[in-house]
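The following record pairs a protein chain with its ligand, BJW.
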Amino acid sequence: MNAFESIKNKLLEAKKIVFVTGAGISQESGIPTFRGNDGLWRNYDAMKLATIDAFYENPKLVWEWYNDRRKNIFQAKPNDGHLAIAELENFVDVTVLTQNIDGLHQKAGSKRVLELHGSIIKIKCTVCDFKTEIADEILEVPPKCTCGNILRPDVVWFGEALNQELWQNAMILANQCDLMVIAGTSLVVSPANTLPIYAKQNNAFLIEVNPEDTEMSSQMDLTIKNTSAISLPQLVSIYKKL
Ligand code: BJW
Ligand code: ZN
């Protein structure tokens, strides 16, 4: 039974759909999530490694974590959840606001993707304005900039602000959509977890796709308790049947 049949009209009326995605959407591509048992790497808690303090305390360790993840991400393929979101662009205006740094939405073919927490392929200097993209493994970590200071992944860690222009755009897009699908995120990290609130201000219909409950499940208009690779193709099939 396709759980989206019951809201078929809502789906077909929607002009602008915004997806808010998190680590769970890439779980079926073999990329671990952050929280729960999955969020452990060499017995370190991922949440403790994703901080600016952890980086300055032990830049080598944090770089090794990103090197391992980059290796895994480079060989990962988008799953049916990513592909369904990309395919939906054939029917309706779609934007993806992702907390993921893995680039799998773009690999799947989604055209409008805002990477709220940065990207695994980007690195930057901790002091000067130098930024670049990397394709290969970095063997000696932490790598150094030509200015002599160490380079870091161009991602957003706890205690750091998101790119302000990007965040402004994300808020506007959330506030203008009439349907928001929140897939594979625990919604515990701010400010990304406020995006459903901006959508609600516009009376948007909120759908959550997650096998587990989140702190905001009770505020959703529809909760689909299944994985994104199973559920999102079912959503697209409603449009395909027309
Ligand atoms: C499936 C599935 C399947 C599984 N299908 N679903 C107190 C002190 C200091 C700061 C704060 C504080 N209180 C609040 C803050 C702010 C802080 C914050 O929110 N902390 C919370 C932990 C409490 N936020 C920040 O610091 C942010 N900046 C900021 O606020 O700036 C202003 C400011 C500055 C200073 C002080 C205060 C404010 C920045 C947040 C940056 C987060 N960065 C990371 C790392 C990015 C780089 C990288 O990837 O390495 O982002 S941490 C990590 O969490 C990563 C993720 O994008 C993010 C969210 O996680 P996500 O995606 O939701 O994953 P999980 O694992 O949590 O959930 C997976 C879900 O999928 C689960 O629900 C599963 O059930 C589900 N699932 N399989 C569908 N197959
Ligand atoms: Zn530099």
